[in-house]
Amino acid sequence: MARYGRHRAPGRHVRPKALESHAILTYAVVAVLAIAGFVVRPHSASANELASFIDAKALTTSQVADAKTSPTGLSTTTVTATKVLAPTKKATLDADIARGTEFVMRPGVPGKQRVTYQLVFINGKQVARKVLTRVVVKSATNAVVIQGTGDPQNLKVALASAAHGVGDPQGNKNFAALYIQNTYGWGDKQFSCLSTLWTRESHWRHQARNRSSGAYGIAQALPGRKMSKVASDWRTNPVTQIKWGASYIAGRYGTPCNALNHSYSRGWY
């Protein structure tokens, strides 16, 4: 019977099963947080912390009472995480821009904030979370926009709105269509010819440059500095280039369709 003798009573150093279960659960929570990339520093709560949790309304008095009478008590874990700070929008109202139109002059850039939390556990179960510190790592950059309040049926307002929308081929076309109609009385047929002509020349890109001739811009002015008669920003402003190109066509060919026919026959205009 010696081999299968009476079992000895557990010694005082043996941990109760309830405590073992709580320890395993607590360590599991800590391990998961650590794997997720958080900074984790677990410790048991002191009497002062219990009082602070009540003051901060992170715990109720009944929860604290349960923690005091619980065999495993209350414990906390400190967790640090990075949060995104969303940019806000700073808007300027403009009566020369059509109502309902918004142009982004400077896009917003998100920021970063490091937040440290204290997670509160009773018997291994999270019951509360308290913010300890917030540190801004990178401030958010606010977006700057222009919001129109003008009458969209007003031609001046429509032109100003279209001028703000230039920069890409479609925006450049939108402005050109309104501008030539208002300034020269050229209708849809003439704009169709102009659209084809300047697509052949530059695909309506305001920074297009001909490597062999040096012609520049939407209308491919040669040399490009001729457009300075309209404004000094001819290198970067599609509005300046369109105004110069329309004036050039009106003075030399009369209409965009005549200029397009010349381009077809000669290869230039």
Polypeptide structure, described:
A hairpin with a 2-residue loop joins strand 5 (111-122) and strand 6 (125-138). Strands 1-2-5-6 form a four-stranded antiparallel beta sheet. The longest helix has 19 residues, at 17-35. It has two domains: 17-143, Resuscitation-promoting factor rpfb (Resuscitation-promoting factor rpfb fold, Single Sheet), CATH 2.20.230.10; 165-266, no CATH class. It has helices at 17-35, 47-55, 61-69, 155-164, 169-184, 188-202, 238-252, 256-266, and strands spanning 39-44, 74-85, 89-98, 102-106, 111-122, 125-138, 143-150. The chain starts with 16 loop residues before the first helix and ends with a helix. The radius of gyration is 36 Å and the shape is rod-shaped. The model is unreliable at 1-43 (pLDDT under 50). 39% of the residues lie in helices and 25% in strands. Helix 6 runs parallel beside helix 8.
Topology:
Elements lengths: L16 H19 L3 E6 L2 H9 L5 H9 L4 E12 L3 E10 L3 E5 L4 E12 L2 E14 L4 E8 L4 H10 L4 H16 L3 H15 L35 H15 L3 H11 L3
Parallel strand pairs: 3-7
Antiparallel strand pairs: 1-2, 2-5, 4-7, 5-6
Helix pairs in contact: 4-5, 5-7, 6-8
Total beta strands: 7
Q: How many domains in all? A: 2
Could you list the spans in which at least 5 consecutive residues all have pLDDT below 50? 1-43
- Distance from N terminus to C terminus (CA atoms, Å) equals 115 Å
